[in-house]
């Protein structure tokens, strides 16, 4: 029976743990992380060493990339040739490395994401910068280790005459850790290295006066220094990088944004595709055409704007939705003595300088040994030439070379190496000129030996050599910064800051169409005019609500179901005076059985401001505006309404204001807001005004001594009334008469508080509107019917009135406003409706004032 092997039971968790740790360490040390000394991963180091062995230096001809990757794969890097070629390609790409280490010939890919040609088509050699990484490699400056099959030796690190890790950066994902190091400017890094050599105790902040920040090969703009400082102090930081652009105007007068630099590692092809999608989907508005005019001279992305487009708004959208603004997270993780470590700026420079000290020390020892060996030989040759006749005689008398060497060693006290050099000497060296050359060479070697010994004895002098070599590198290969650094953190452009503050009239029709129209679109008219068309509506639709607010304010919509929604006024669709507008349900998530019954404008949501609401049945309620901050367009409950009741008015209050509730039948109740306690959003409210069975509440006004109440009836009559005409009463009472309702005037349909120098906007159910000065409407007593404000052609009727705020108003005044043709209608007034012929009717007693 054949002998079987021994089975050793192993716990699966132990085996997995051991295997995974082995794999993890292999990835960390031998694949993904760069060495802090030369800034290279093993694959890059092996490629560059293979190119050095193939003699592919800057002055030589290029060789096929397949030859290079094949050589590296067969000798040192037993992995896939695709990964090797990818690494070689990246080292040759000017948009990937700030200072490419390889000079490629052929198609090595593009910033558009185009792949490189196959390795059999492209050729490469070391660039001048790459060649500096291998300087003095053959002078025993670094340790060599066996390759994967121990048949050859490869360098464990390159001498690296320049700080490659800092100037080119690195990126890689290991197991449980990752590195993402930014490239820097060679001049700045070399200046910092030189400064550090002079003063190793200098602080990170002092080093940052030399290294101002990353310098990406694709340029761009870094906003703010906070992320840079964090990265340099802790090894981790986050940068915000934007593309660089200029504004150009073409012959037709249209403006275009030209991007000639984009953030680092952004694929231009993917960027353009994404940009095109956003333009088609109208996520980014105001762009008429997108073109890529990049060529061999540089990158050029042309974004032509539509007429009237605001450049800053378009830029904000571009930066918000595309990679034209992207963040770069810095993780300065590198291998220090084969252990991963997160390094700050000072440590990165320190380890590079220490590596250079070790390399230059070993190079000096190598040069010293070679110089001493050569000087030793020259000393023997000089002795031989001084005694050439005797030397020739000894050699002639000797039976063979070994005896001749021994005889020379004994006669002139020479070493075996010197004796060998003498017997190998050609007869041509016996000329007097050659003798002088030997003596001169020996003298020079003695001087060199003395210098090299002084370097090894004085570390300060040795560091001076490193400083000089670093400065030489900077002088030869240094260039200007490409990436601009802007002080101060990036500011997301607030679109509101770019939108003109302007009073807007917001119109809502019975069928739910909403739009905003600049108040400046309406001409100033005298009272009694017929007004201008404000909306082209369908036959079965009519304008139901009118509201005036600034573009920067919030506008809150409260529906018949008692739900509140808000949005910014500038977010509403802007239209012309005669446009139909957009349906409110396309802007808000309003259910089919809901109608907008009240709207209110506010600047912010706070605990010190209240929303005071009144329903048709006289119920009132106040709620803190902070309760609505998360309503937005999805809506939240504002008031719980009784069946058959509806919200008719809502206004902002301070919590201590006086309010006046006005009914359609001409009753008004002045009361104090404090009588109504603050409630939650889902509560019903309390009784505010006692109404007769056929009466309804038409509006609620806030008491302001500097303002007057303006009342408007459904057939176009109105007046102003002072708050002082009414005495305060408790809530739940019937109030006092504010208007004498008749068949000619119709019921009260609108009320608003106004100042003397303001203007108001009135609108009818058929969409006609009129804007006129408040001063043209007289102040009258409580029972007066007022004057004709708007001429109504029945069956049309007035549905609302609102004030145009004095501040920020933009009025288009017609110089001939008083002329008949400017009024928009017949200015001839009925004598009995003339202001001078109207008289105040006797005030009636207060009704239900004590109830």
TrEMBL record:
Broadest EC class assigned to this enzyme: isomerase
Annotated family: Belongs to the type II topoisomerase GyrA/ParC subunit family.
Cell compartment(s), UniProt: Cytoplasm
PROSITE patterns membership: TOPO_IIA (PS52040)
Subunit structure: Heterotetramer, composed of two GyrA and two GyrB chains. In the heterotetramer, GyrA contains the active site tyrosine that forms a transient covalent intermediate with DNA, while GyrB binds cofactors and catalyzes ATP hydrolysis. Heterotetramer composed of ParC and ParE.
Topo IIA-type catalytic domain sequence ranges: 33-498
Miscellaneous remark of the record: Few gyrases are as efficient as E.coli at forming negative supercoils. Not all organisms have 2 type II topoisomerases; in organisms with a single type II topoisomerase this enzyme also has to decatenate newly replicated chromosomes.
Motif (GyrA-box) on chain: 525-531
Keyword Cell inner membrane in record: no
Chief place of localization: cytoplasm
Stored InterPro entries: GyrA, GyrA/parC_rep, Gyrase/topoIV_suA_C, Topo_IIA-like_dom_sf, Topo_IIA_A/C_ab, Topo_IIA_A_a_sf, Topo_IIA_dom_A, Type_II_DNA_Topoisomerases
Task performed by this protein: A type II topoisomerase that negatively supercoils closed circular double-stranded (ds) DNA in an ATP-dependent manner to modulate DNA topology and maintain chromosomes in an underwound state. Negative supercoiling favors strand separation, and DNA replication, transcription, recombination and repair, all of which involve strand separation. Also able to catalyze the interconversion of other topological isomers of dsDNA rings, including catenanes and knotted rings. Type II topoisomerases break and join 2 DNA strands simultaneously in an ATP-dependent manner.
Catalytic activity, reaction form: ATP-dependent breakage, passage and rejoining of double-stranded DNA
Pfam families per record: DNA_gyraseA_C, DNA_topoisoIV
Keywords per UniProt: ATP-binding, Cytoplasm, DNA-binding, Isomerase, Nucleotide-binding, Topoisomerase
Native source species: Breznakiella homolactica
Domain of life: Bacteria
Protein name, UniProt field: DNA gyrase subunit A
Molecular function GO labels: ATP binding; DNA binding; DNA negative supercoiling activity
Annotated segments matching region Disordered: 814-851
Biased composition (Acidic residues): 827-851
Gene Ontology biological-process entries: DNA topological change; DNA-templated DNA replication
